[in-house]
Design brief:
16 helices, Amidase_dom, 11-stranded mixed sheet, Amidase signature (AS) enzymes, globular, single chain, ligase, transferase, alpha/beta
């Protein structure tokens, strides 16, 4: 029973609570035991709040449990999100004693709906990196193969869900840090439209590119949780005021005639042949369901990595300038090197990069006049081995972190909503993922198509073998 519960999606757990077949206290106990069993292997959690979670669970009544689909259900949050009276380490020695004085906006949203926070998850220090390697709290591993990386920077959130320690988790996504690890671990990873979900109370890395994201087992759960955490936050200057939407309204709806763009370059290049083959099957299925597949040409990607870093590093330096003089020695060598690069970039470089980003947004918006969605692979490679420094594909080598996020980072610059999800298994026994990208604030269209794929047996994947 406990193993079955551990790998249940949020909607299924909500049904069990509604019918009285399980209680919130029992759920917290089951997931807490999973954390005890697998945290030493996975390195998913930095801080576990099992006692607080049990107290919250015990206080909930039937009225509380009727308030939302996530009431009474445990979740985890990346250790960049402030949770009142709990430390927010950001995966670094610099913040090892930092206690939050109030909840982040999204934590408050979940608390009001009686979701139960079970702990804070591991990450690449201050979200600076896509591998999830962390010299202080350990490196998170993949649930399907512990010799491989979970991916990052939201590595602990991915591992926590993939190992069955929580059914859902929050992360942040600056270049793919939710979508890529979700794909590598066989999960659904959502980056909503920029401004859709407030980042207030989240330790910043790069204000221009930071997004709050969600990791779940199913597309429906992602839609349900987005309904809870989205909304206008007047205290967040980037937050956008829009009417509330029922994101799950189109789940399962017919999408015959929907136009799906297939990039003609970059996104289907230098990728594992098995990943490309899996995407071909996805395209065939979408066509069979009445979708129109149309070629699209996205902006030239030659300089996009440089543009992204030229904005990231000065903004990271700005965010950390107050701590460097007194606590500079506590930063990892890797992050200090990034901040040093930020010092070398001129205002001219930063301004030019911001102008590039505006051009990318306009050019991508123009594409969405002709298509409703864009389909790409989630990553060009399956989860790399722990310790991998570079990957080589078609004679071209690149840093492993760059490879992990090669197909995701562009859409942080444009700010369009994007979702990754599993669409098959590699012969090496690891998940393969796809990415769907939509127009600004049209997450419902993504969910509409993604939910069909989620229910199609040909794209289902086995659970990882994680016996305690």
């Amino acid at each position: 029973m406990s193993s079955e519960i551990a790998f249940s999606d949020v909607r299924s757990l909500n049904s069990l609570l509604d019918t009285g077949r399980i209680t919130p206290t029992e759920l917290v106990s089951i997931f807490s035991e999973r954390i005890k069993c697998f945290n030493d292997i996975s390195r998913a959690f930095i801080t576990v709040t099992a006692e607080e979670a049990a107290n919250t669970a015990g206080s909930l009544n039937k009225v509380d449990l009727s308030k939302s689909s996530i009431a009474g259900i445990p979740y985890a949050s990346k250790d960049l999100f402030d949770v009142k009276d709990i430390r927010t380490t950001a995966g670094s020695r610099v913040f090892q004693d930092r206690i939050a004085t109030e909840d982040a906006f999204v934590i408050d949203c979940l608390r009001r709906k009686h979701a139960i926070g079970l702990g804070k998850t591991n990450l690449h220090e201050f979200a600076y990196g896509a591998t999830g390697e962390n010299e202080v709290y350990g490196t998170c591993v993949n649930a399907y193969d512990p010799t491989r990386l979970a991916g990052g920077s939201s590595s602990g959130s991915a591992a926590a869900v993939a190992f069955g320690m929580v059914p859902a988790a929050l992360g942040t996504d600056t270049g793919g840090s939710v979508r890529a690890p979700a794909a590598l671990n066989g999960l659904v990873g959502l980056k909503p439209t920029i401004g859709r979900v407030s980042t207030r109370g989240v330790v910043p890395y790069c204000w221009t590119l930071d997004h709050v994201g969600i990791m779940t087992r199913t597309v429906a759960d992602s839609a349900d949780i987005l309904e809870i955490i989205s909304g206008y936050d007047p205290k967040d200057p980037a937050s956008v005021s829009l009417p509330e939407e029922p994101y799950s309204a189109n789940l399962g709806a017919d999408f015959s005639g929907i136009r799906i763009g297939i990039p003609t370059r970059f996104f289907f290049e230098r990728a594992d042949p098995e990943i490309l083959a899996a995407l071909e099957l996805v395209k065939e299925h979408l066509s069979s369901r009445g979708a129109m597949l149309l070629p699209v040409t996205l902006p030239d990607m030659e300089h996009t990595r440089t543009v992204s870093l030229t904005v990231q590093l000065p903004e990271a330096l700005s965010a950390h300038s107050a701590y460097l003089e007194e606590h500079g020695h506590l930063y990892s060598r890797d992050f200090r090197a990034g901040l040093a690069l930020g010092q070398c970039l001129l205002a001219e470089h930063y301004v030019k990069a911001k102008r590039f980003i505006e051009c990318y947004r306009q050019q991508t918006n123009a594409i969405f006049r002709d298509v409703d969605l864009i389909l790409t692979p989630a990553t060009p490679e399956i989860a790399p081995k722990v310790g991998t420094v570079k990957t080589t594909r078609d004679g071209v080598s690149e840093a492993v972190g760059n490879a992990i996020t090669r197909f995701t980072s562009f859409f942080n610059m444009t700010g369009h909503p994007a979702l990754t999800m599993p669409c098959g298994m590699h012969s090496d026994g690891l998940p393969i993922g796809l990415q769907l990208v939509g127009r600004y604030f049209e997450e419902r269209t993504i969910f509409q198509v993604a939910s069909d794929l989620d229910r199609t047996e040909a794209f289902s994947i086995p659970l990882p073998k994680t016996d305690c």
